[in-house]
Amino acid sequence: MEPRQITVIQASAVLVSTIIGVGVLALPLFAVRAADSGGPLVTLLAVLLAFVGLALITWLGIRFPDQTIIRYSEVIIGKWLAWIGSMLIILFFAVLTSLTAREFGEVVVTSVLKETPVEVTVIVMLLLATISTRHGITTFAHIHTFYVPFLLIPVLVIVALSLKNAEAINLLPILGNEPSGMLKGTLTIAALFQGAFILTAVIPSMKHPEKAMKASVWGMVIAGGLYIIIVAATISVFGSEEIKQLLWPTLELAKATTLPANILERLDAAFLAVWVTAVFTTLFSSYFFTIYAMSHLFRLREHKLFSYFILPFVFVMAMLPTNIVQMYEIIENVGRIGLIITTGYPGLLLIVSILRKKRGNRIADKKVDQND
Amino acid sequence: MLGGYTIGYLYYVITLFIMSGLFILYVDVKDFQKAKQKKEWKVSRFIGWFNLIIGFITLIGNWVI
After folding, report:
1. Which of A310, A355, A289, A334 is nearest to A69 (CA)?
2. Helices A79-111 and A345-355, axial angle in degrees (round to 10)
């Protein structure tokens, strides 16, 4: 059992570093496919949609400050219905973990370690997450807080430097030429924010759970703002039609960017170093949430026993897509379906909890991880 | 696949099942026994053996087929 130690800043840091992840590389491609030059607008809409989901989880967390979604869903809708919902959440996050690991592996074997089997890169990343998740949630929050500056500062520097090649005309019209795919694109990009669901595990360990909404707002403003900046910068540099020909436009943006006085002629290596950290923190969160939720579902006081148990299963799921094209199709479809689990389900729980007047202890000055 | 050499991932899966099973049985089960966490000890013993058996069944199945 751990005392409540996580501050609002740490909770925000967990959100930021969880959200910013593997999806950053393909993000501008998803945005321009949806609405051409209207990519930044689609991203903004996606941020707003993702915030709705996050706000629902936060609101529920504030109503039940002692429990995670796995436990308070049982109070709200009954044990068996909640069990189905919890199993879906656990399965979804296990799939999300596997797809994150696979996407990481594909990027690495395509652009850096060209002769290394993709299986090895996936296993290495999964092992890193497996070992890290064996500690408690306070250590989890510390690790995220430590990495946040290393994610934000280099990306902002690269984006700022890339703007010297930018043409503002590429961002017009703001609504895009063919905004017909906007809804689908908004859902696809909103799905990149689903890691924010981790907040439901963090709130019961926060010093002041009533301030969780502040953490949510800051987390979404920082991560969402960074996503909008990346999309806007990439579109303004390349233009929407060129981006449609690129698999990972953000990586190309880093390649096209130079440090002043040509100290470094391309920044893709530096960007990839940052991106590996970003992938690790995202994978770390989804892996942690999977085993943390399992331990709560089975009322166990420790989650570490599941860390090595799920490793082979996650690896098998990661290897199922036969190629990059199929992998991205699966990622887009799973992401959109996941919105039902990460936004629709908490919304339903919130409505039922209000109707049935269910809520947890207001005074949340107890120890966490009360599974027994 | 666009990049990387591959030899199929079955042997990686078998290795992961066996290694994870052994790790759970040798580390986690002992830890929970020391800490006198009975439920965790039982569950970890079950999942440890589960992974180990799946790993060996897959290995034997792969040889036979």
Report:
1. A289
2. 150
Residue A368 has pLDDT above 60, yes or no: no
Query: Over the stretch A316-339, which tens digit does the pLDDT of each residue have?
Result: 999 999 989 999 999 989 998 999
The mean per-residue pLDDT over the stretch A131-143 comes to 94
Nearest CA in chain A to B37: A301
Cα–Cα dist A145/A283, whole Å:
15
Which of B20, B37, B44 shows the shortest C-beta gap to A312? B20
- Whole-prediction pTM value? 0.92
Nearest neighbour of B13 by CB, restricted to A106, A113, A316: A316
Residues of A at the B interface, defined by Cβ within 8 angstroms:
106, 109-111, 113-119, 121, 123, 298-302, 304-306, 308-309, 311-312, 315-316, 319, 322-324
Which chain B residue shows the shortest CA-CA distance from A303? B40
- CATH no., domain A8-355: 1.20.1740.10
Q: Does B37 touch chain A (CB under 8 A)?
A: yes
Domain chopping of chain A, boundaries: 8-355
Rounded CA-CA distance A40/A230 in Å is 9
**What does the pLDDT look like over B28-63, one tens digit per residue?**
999 999 999 999 999 999 999 999 999 999 999 988
